[in-house]
Amino acid sequence: MKQKDIFAIILRRNQESLLSAIEGLSHLEMFLQLPGEGNCTNWILGHIASYRDGMLVDSGLSSYMQPDEVQMYAGGSSPIKAGDICVDCARLTELIDITFSDLMYWLENENDGLRQAPVGNRKDNIGYSGVCSTLTEHFAQNIGHESIHVGELNPLRELALERRK
After folding, report:
1. What is the DSSP letter of 115?
2. What CATH fold (topology level) applies to the domain 3-18+37-164?
3. Is the model more confident about 129 or about 16?
4. Which residue of 24, 70, 73, 129 has the fewest CB atoms within a 10 Å radius of its CB?
């Protein structure tokens, strides 16, 4: 199996799990946090969208996120709580969908593009490809990282549903 097919399978599973975890949640429910310093759903969505956006840029495709949006959800950024300035959850969901679609299209149509060096401006895409010499490394790192954050969404969904009772 080709590397691009493996990436596509994982991205597809992540997307399905992510959409299932946020289905029917209200805007306010996306700011719930588990005890401790866990991430809220809004931050997780923005974080995943920003990393996917960086993968697009580094693949030579267009960015969908504004620099201030990327900064808000970059690795090491401050937690987001209800009432904080942040990107609306509807916009984040849209970014999740369009970045997924573009990444899938690129993976389905690339011809050895994963072997190329990332082409994005690392200065503008904080946290993206600074340590990767090929797109294969970049995609592997980011898709693995994304999978961890997708796994955080189900407990947050359970918390939201429990609070509804």
Report:
1. G
2. Four Helix Bundle (Hemerythrin (Met), subunit A) (1.20.120)
3. 16
4. 24
109, amino acid identity: N
Domain boundaries defined on the chain:
3-18+37-164
Residue whose C-alpha is closest to residue 36's, from 133, 156, 146, 144: 156
pLDDT, greater one: 112 or 30 = 30
Tokens encoding 163: 């609070």
Decide if 31 contacts 41 (C-beta within 8 A): yes
Q: What is the CA radius of gyration of the chain?
A: 16
d(CA 50, CA 127): 9
Q: Is residue 125's pLDDT more than 80?
A: no
Percent of the chain with pLDDT over 70: 93
pLDDT class for 31, splitting at 50, 70, 90?
Answer: very high
